[in-house]
Design brief:
CATH class of the largest domain: Alpha Beta
Distance between the termini: 47 Å
Number of strands: 9
Shape: globular
Largest sheet: 7 strands, mixed
Number of helices: 15
Order of helices and strands: EHHEEEHHEHEHEEEHHHHHHHHH
CATH architecture of the largest domain: 3-Layer(aba) Sandwich
Helix content: 40-55%
Radius of gyration: 21 Å
Strand order of the largest sheet: 3-2-1-4-5-9-8
Strand content: 5-15%
Length: about 325
């Protein structure tokens, strides 16, 4: 299994958690859950840290971070993660000019680039977000619109994706964005296992119709977003994918291609994920029987439901409920 090469940037004046959270989540993917289950670890990422000049950096809080390399030493990488860059956006642009130039060069190499909070403004300064939808912290979005008017800024999403550019909102969105990237690169099951092993609940990745957005919604393909919204409210029903393509004005073939590109999954696989996620929440919070839950989320065949549930979560419904369901306190 080829490892995904990821470079986590360390910036002076930011908050260290926005670099450390990605480091820990990428490092634990395929590893920590396997260790807890008594299985051999299967790392999914090869990780390095880098600063502009290879020197250590200070932070908004009294912590010093020491990188493994300088940016100039990074010859090849699949993914770059940029943390917060401080609240003074003009200073951040000037102070990180070397990173901005480097990001622009990496973009020409088709490297995937992710950033969170004020770090997103450095992607904008590099011209990577021109004409694209992008999210950032709600507290700076108006300033971002003034500084970078070519970007379609929005603060109502926690995560946005346009092509292979990924943006996260507030500071602790670094957790959600990192888990989202684990899902994109390694699949839903690994992302779920990583979150559970780290005791992270992240409904902002795996959503139900009652949450902010459904799984894989962090993209800017509007017809596919309409299809996802329709699925979110009709997931219990028998779904004909060709009819769904027609609802959003696309041919079945084009719909299948664009749905996969936007969400990382087929429409049918995505529907199963919606149903299994709803079932997962029922098992966590409801005393209803597994048969009842199976039927409520759209599966009359409970044996088929059990098989799918294990595929997507790594546990049977009964095992899942015993680990994460409601417990009585004596």
């Amino acid at each position: 299994m080829a490892l995904i090469d990821v470079t986590v940037v360390l910036l002076d004046g930011g908050l260290p958690s926005t670099s450390m959270a990605p480091l820990e989540i990428f490092g634990c993917a395929g590893v920590l859950w396997s260790m807890l289950m008594g299985r051999p670890a299967e790392p999914r990422f090869r990780i390095r840290t880098a600063t502009i000049d290879g020197r250590s950096v200070g932070n908004f809080v009294p912590v010093t971070l020491v990188p493994t390399v300088a940016l100039r030493d990074v010859r090849r990488t699949d993914l770059v993660f940029v943390p917060t860059a401080g609240l003074d956006l003009e200073r951040a642009r000037q102070h990180n000019a070397g990173l901005i130039d480097w990001l622009s060069h990496r973009r020409r190499k088709d490297t995937a680039i992710a950033a969170v909070c004020t770090g997103v403004t450095l992607l904008a300064a590099a011209g990577l977000l021109d004409g694209r939808a992008a999210t950032t912290h709600w507290g700076i979005v108006d300033r971002c619109r003034d500084l970078y008017p070519k970007v379609r800024w929005s603060a109502d999403r926690l995560i946005s994706q346009s092509g292979n550019i990924f943006c996260g909102g507030g500071l602790y969105a670094s957790l959600d964005l990192s888990l989202y990237l684990v899902e994109r690169y390694c699949g839903h099951e690994i992302a779920v296992e990583t979150a559970k092993a780290l005791l992270l609940e992240s409904p902002r990745i795996w959503q139900t119709p009652y949450a902010v957005q459904p799984p894989g919604a962090a993209h800017d393909d509007e017809p596919i977003q309409r299809a996802q919204k329709w699925l979110a409210f009709h997931y219990r029903e028998v779904v004909d994918v060709d009819s769904l393509a027609s609802k959003v004005g696309m041919s079945p073939r084009n719909f299948a291609r664009r749905f996969k590109a936007a969400t990382g999954d087929t429409a049918l696989g995505y529907l199963h994920r919606l149903r299994i996620d709803r079932a997962r929440r029922q098992l966590e919070n409801s005393p209803r029987s597994i048969q009842e839950i199976s039927e409520e989320v759209g599966y009359e065949d409970v044996a088929f439901f059990r098989m799918l549930f294990r595929r997507y979560t790594g546990a049977s419904p009964r095992e899942y409920r015993s680990r994460f369901g409601p417990r009585r306190v004596a």
